[in-house]
Amino acid sequence: MHKPALTSLAFLLVLTWQPVFACKCAASASVCNAVAASDVIFIGAVESVEPRSLYDPTKRRLWELTQEEIKGAEGWRTRFKVKETFRGAPVSSVEVWSELSDCGFAFQIGETYLVYASRNETEHRLETSVCSRTCRLSDAGADLAYLFFLKHGGAESGRLTGFVTSDRLDVDTARFWDFIHHPARNILLEIEFDKSVRYTSADQQGRFTFDGLPAGDYRISAFRGSYPEQGSMAAAPRTVHLKPNGCVNEVILVQPGSH
Q1: How far apart are CA 193 and CA 66, in angstroms?
Q2: What is the biggest distance separating any 2 CA atoms in the chain, rounded to whole angstroms?
Q3: CA 151: distance to chain centroid?
Q4: Distance (Å, rounded) from C-alpha 126 to C-alpha 128?
Q5: HSE, side-chain direction, 13 A CA sphere, residue 207
Q6: In angstroms, rounded to a whole number, what is the distance separating the alpha carbons of residues 212 and 158?
Q7: Which residues contact 48 (CB under 8 A, 6 or more apart)?
Q8: 75 closest CA partner among 59, 97, 53, 105
Q9: What is the C-alpha to C-alpha distance for residues 211 and 159, in angstroms, rounded to an integer?
Q10: Is 43 a residue whose pLDDT tops 50?
Q11: Which of the pair, 86 or 26, is modelled with greater confidence?
Q12: Judging by beta carbons within 10 Å of its beta carbon (0-12, 13-18, 19+), is residue 178 exposed, middle or buried?
């Protein structure tokens, strides 16, 4: 996967040093899409950050560094001791590069992270940024559930996930990004497959997830209230197909009055 060279940014900053704006990412991709787009995914503890002269946990903004500090630097090179690999060849240690900018990820020595990295074929190295789903392991709960089933679930490693919305505009815009603008709350989701039934509730962001699923056709329904004891249907049932080890992202539009 080709990525722009990090050196160009550092060179530009040396020539035209001035304050820059904070990094702006389009949005956070869903776990499924982030996994599909990454070449390497692993859990690792930070052993070193180079150049050492630039590593300072108190300096989180690029404009706090002097011109001498950034001169000649290609970016931050972080070495990890790998604890578990979810995608890519298993290794004991690995180096990951990050831009010398506010889009660069400020790893802390001694901390453990879940890292999503892409391969820069031009520079022959792995890269990540704050716009990826890379995060401290302590903050990676939603990702780890999917990655666990993907690695250890065997035939039952699929995921059916998505959002419940009260606005039709969300239906076409939320299949890649991990958010919607108008979540519907207090909605219960039901899936039926091969004479089995499972339930879950949408969270405050309207998100729902079913993990550990085998391949097949699933009938998914949405209800408001305390269904199945009491309640009413909020959206007509639909059938979705889940491929082996697949991930399906559905956006369900509920009827008015289901907030």
Answers
A1: 60
A2: 68
A3: 17
A4: 7
A5: 12
A6: 5
A7: 78, 79, 109
A8: 97
A9: 5
A10: yes
A11: 86
A12: buried
Of 15 and 160, more confident: 160
Alpha carbon distance 38, 34 (integer Å): 6
Q: What is the mean pLDDT of the chain?
A: 83
List the one residue out of 246, 235, 219 whose CA is nearest residue 171.
235
Res. 170: pLDDT tops 70: yes
User: Residue 53's pLDDT is what?
Assistant: 53
> Is 80 exceeded by the pLDDT of residue 8?
no
Which amino acid, one-letter code, is at 200? T
Tell me the residue type at 184: A
Map tokens 């890292």 to a residue.
Answer: 115
15-19, 50-54, 133-137, 189-193: least confident range:
15-19
How many whole angstroms separate alpha carbon 108 and alpha carbon 54? 12
CB 231 within 8 A of CB 258: no
Q: Is the pLDDT of residue 197 over 70?
A: yes
- The residues pairing with 116 across neighbouring beta strands, listed in sequence order, are 41
